[in-house]
Amino acid sequence: MKQIIFTDLDGTLLDYNTYSFKKAQDALRLLNIKKIPLIICTSKTRAEIEYYRKKLGNRVPFISENGGAIFIPKNYFKFQFSFSKTDKNYFIIELGTDYNKLISVIKKIKKSNINIGNFSDMSAKEVSKITNLSVRNAKLAKKRNYDEPFLLYDKKKEKDLIKIIKKNKLNYTKGTRFYHLMGNFDKGKAVKILINLFKRKYNKITTYGFGDSKNDFEMLNSIDNAYLVMKKNKKYASKKYKKADGVGPIGWSKVVNEEILNN
After folding, report:
1. Does the annotation mark 147 as catalytic?
2. What is the pLDDT of residues 71-96, one digit of tens each?
3. DSSP label at residue 211
4. Which of 19, 97, 211, 243 is the most buried (most CB within 10 A)?
């Protein structure tokens, strides 16, 4: 039975403060040796994911912007499947809402006296300061197509915020740092599509999933073996899923070494 891993990045495979996967490096090396596909499923943009895929030597499909799109390298699946569009490197399955619609609703939220700070209105330097990303990586984070991250400065306004989002037939989720405005999609919908493609490729598979926040729950609900890693405060985002014993990449590595590589 082929093992397939789906993983969030920020606060999960990547350290919360340093955005490094150094603490998971040994486990990652063994996954590569065993040729176990590691599917990145994150709120990050295509540009950001490609940055980490290059560092990881990762050549498998990936999911960007909380399920907004699935990118499948050409020639990865040796059979035909439906996709939205193609470019030089990928077949792309789009699930997300047009980004311009998201920005129009962001403007409505601001006009309703709800104080938010969103990526499209921030400079790369401002994003860098808030996230601790380098300015270079902050520029990659701003290259969005399907999901708009924002900070809500007054939590008492959350109900009013949600009303506006729902009135405009959009959705939202909460990640490690930000709220995310998005369309009628989530990580789980994208994961299910990829799982079906992997079943066609390998026939029998077992899936593992790793996350740390609320925006990972739909992904984890679609997985055979779902794990939450500890957040930086050493707490878990939910009691529902299996617990990885460690913060971020430390907990991630323990599960990979003890539960996946030994099977």
Report:
1. no
2. 999 999 999 999 999 999 999 999 99
3. E
4. 211
